Amino acid sequence: MAMAKGNGRRQGGARAAPGEVPVDLHRCFVFPNRMREQRHAAGHARLLRLASLLPDIPYIRLSKIERGEVVPRPEELRRIAAALNIAPADLLLDVDAPGFDIGLWAEPFLDGAPVDLAEERFAVLLAAALRARRTGDPALTIAAIERDYGLAPVNLSRIENAQKTFDRWNAATRHALYQLLRVADEAELRDHIAGLHAAGGLDAFLAYIASPAARHERTRARIAEISAALQAGDAVAAPVVAPLPVSGAVSIRLVPVLGAPLAQGLIADTPTSEKAEAPHAAGPRAFGLKVCRATLGGGLPGQAVVIVDPDRLPSSGSLAALREEAGWRLLSVGSDREGRMIGYSSNPELEVVLDDCDPSRLAALVSAIFP
Question: Which residue from 208, 214, 222 is spatially nearest to 11, judged by alpha carbons?
Answer without folding.
Answer: 214
